[in-house]
């Protein structure tokens, strides 16, 4: 078993065994209360967090895993990038890079003409081109997107023909991402899915991708549009939804 599997097994074992002992020491269950015990065991982490940090500390305990992941993939790379910016050399090992202070930042401003990035050093050219692209994106694309989105929202709120359909088309991109993600994970984790096919045979995995990427997506799109249309009509008519 690989290290990830060992860690996952230890976490599950602690959850089940430790949670069962912790619950049975504080409560008594009968045979018919087995489902209640299962639900209490499922919420065991929340209860133990509340017993350690109190009711006010439970939200922070629930946020802690996300904050650790967010910090690992966001704040830690920012710190590492800052250290790389004040060190030199070509080594990828942070300990083998000599400290150069602000020399890399000074190199950014090594330009003959700041309005022409081609006259800058390699580092300065990359920096000023990236800055100009970001500035154009903020000044042009963001306002245009906001204006178009607001105008579209105002139009679909008017009494026009097929308003429910246009509302569904306007809202459908919001639903597209979770639908696509759900289908991808279905292909990956299915018993005969991409993961198992890849572990067995790469050619079979490519065939599985080609065979599963068609009808499911189309059917999901059609069903989502119909569901939005029916929901909008039901809410507008204020009637009880029929079967």
What does this structure look like?
This protein is mainly alpha-helical and 243 residues long. It has helices spanning 3-26, 34-42, 44-53, 58-85, 103-108, 122-156, 163-189, 194-200, 202-212, 215-237. The longest helix is centred in the middle third of the chain and has 35 residues, at 122-156.
- Outline, from the CA principal axes? flat
Q: Spans of 5+ residues with little confidence (pLDDT < 50)? A: none
Mean pLDDT: 77
Give the amount of beta strand, in percent.
under 5%
Please give the radius of gyration in angstroms. Answer: 28 Å
Care to count the β-strands? 0
Fold blueprint:
Layout: H1 3-26, H2 34-42, H3 44-53, H4 58-85, H5 103-108, H6 122-156, H7 163-189, H8 194-200, H9 202-212, H10 215-237
Helix pairs in contact: 7-10, 8-9
What does this entry show, briefly?
The protein is mainly α. The chain contains ten helices and no strands. 74% of the residues lie in helices and 0% in strands.
Describe this protein with a few key phrases.
243 residues; mainly alpha; 10 helices
